[in-house]
Amino acid sequence: xxxxxxxxxxxxxxxxxxxxxxxxxxxxxxxxxxxxxxxxxxxxxxxxxxxxxxxxxxxxxxxxxxxxxxxxxxxxxxxxxxxxxxxxxxxxxxxxxxxxxxxxxxxxxxxxxxxxxxxxxxxxxxxxxxxxxxxxxxxxxxxxxxxxxxxxxxxxxxxxxxxxxxxxxxxxxxxxxxxxxxxxxxxxxxxxxxxxxxxxxxxxxxxxxxxxxxxxxxxxxxxxxxxxxxxxxxxxxx
Length: 238
Known about the structure:
This protein has 238 residues and is an alpha+beta fold. The chain has helices at 18-30, 63-74, 84-109, 115-125, 131-148, 155-172, 186-199, 206-212, 215-229; strands at 2-6, 34-38, 52-55, 58-61. It has a single domain (2-229), classed as Glutathione S-transferase Yfyf (Class Pi), Chain A, domain 2.
């Protein structure tokens, strides 16, 4: 049995971190049974980062490494039809999402306009959290943003970067479809992980406003959300 360890849910999304939600969505799309365990403390995780999985006693961290492990071990065909060009595009989008992560995270923890709403949602949905714990987490994130670089910019400059990422995604995703055609591939799980963590949040950031203005992004996100949030069925395909 596979156990996924990732951050808790928020605003009806199964994981409030894009990487954990990516793995969750992938597991649901390919129909692998798994147990989902939620954590706030990542100190015991591989490299101190969530998500990670434990699969038959083997611990694997990093979302891309997890997906590669699952595809190899279980013979999954979700990306089997992709050629070299499609795989290269998927890698580029994955790196773009790595960039978007920092802007999305900044909008929650750093931007004083949106931090109170994010904090209130966390406290409401997860009463075990404390003011002291959230303050420490926020200070830790401030350090991360500074050393990564995004924390050294004014908010408008930060959002300019994130909006450029979203504009590329909006141009790549076809109306009513997925990145590589009519069926989702693993990169669509990755895109969903981040877009859902913006679109479904009751926090009106510039990122959320942009997504709302692009029907294809909304359709992609809501279609995958409906699919992955359904209870697993016996006829799920690998």
